Amino acid sequence: MGGAVLNQLSVRAYGASHGSHDHGHFQVLVGLQGVLELEMAGRGQCLGAGQGCVVPPGERHDFESKLGAQCLVLDSTSMGWASAPSAPPAQVTHLATYLAHACAQGLPRAQQLGPALLLEAWQPEPGTVPRVRRHIDWDQLQRWAASRWSEPLSVSDLADQVHLSTAQFAARCRAELGMSTQQWLRSLRLEEAREWRRQGLSVAETARRTGYRSPSALTAALRRES
Q1: Which of 33, 68, 78, 81 is deepest in the core (most CB within 10 A)?
Q2: Looking at residue 175, which CATH number applies to its domain?
Q3: Are 11 and 116 in the same domain?
Q4: The HTH araC/xylS-type domain covers which part of the protein (predicted)?
Q5: What is the pLDDT of residue 13?
Q6: Is residue 165 over pLDDT 90?
Q7: What CATH number does the domain containing 17 carry?
């Protein structure tokens, strides 16, 4: 995430889904009106007024609201969000309402300071015992994943293996490995496939062992990354 820091606040209305997507920055949402249905890494949740979530960089997600919803949205490259809780404490509600008003009124000072205030308010209350940052043994996790390439393997499966939420795992992957969870999974599969091919295994058998849907899909993936 090189270049200028992105910290942009906006108020967005949601309706029918436009399809799943991802982006290279954190996206922080706080519900203002209605209920927003969110699917992230294969898991669903609903955001009502005052509820929020952090979508990590590179995480595939989809939004939909059958009756319409409005949210305060922060698009940010600040790595402070990598260690933020997945859901906000209660004090975020009033701040989000004010920041939404500031966006609607075009108040420049509030919009400038709002992202830092939102991150500060999202943190645990002073005096609470901080959670110990769980260590991830990436080499061990890679070996575990490699033994299951023939099975459907999702980001949530990896997160469960290290006892983290998908959002926490995705943020740690970005912070510690410099890539999204999907990019990391893809790189592991490709490296495993290259090793099998170096050993003389056929394309068809390599595709089967590494979980590609067809030999042509594996060939195309290898060609893209060559």
Answers
A1: 81
A2: 1.10.10.60
A3: yes
A4: 139-226
A5: 95
A6: no
A7: 2.60.120.10
User: 26 and 77 in contact (C-beta within 8 Å)?
Assistant: yes
Write the pLDDT tens digit of every residue in 177-210.
878 888 888 888 888 888 888 899 999 988 888 8
- Does residue 18 share a domain with residue 111? yes
- Give residue for tokens 């992957």: 173
- Residues 172 and 136: beta-carbon distance below 8 Å: yes
- Give the structural domain span for 143: 138-224
Single-letter amino acid, residue 119:
L
Strands laid side by side in the 52-55 sheet: 7-14, 69-76, 26-33, 52-55
Which amino acid type is present at position 37?
Answer: E
Does 69 lie in the same domain as 164? no
How many independent structural domains does the chain possess?
Answer: 2
Mention every residue, 6+ apart, whose C-beta is less than 8 A from residue 164: 134, 136, 172
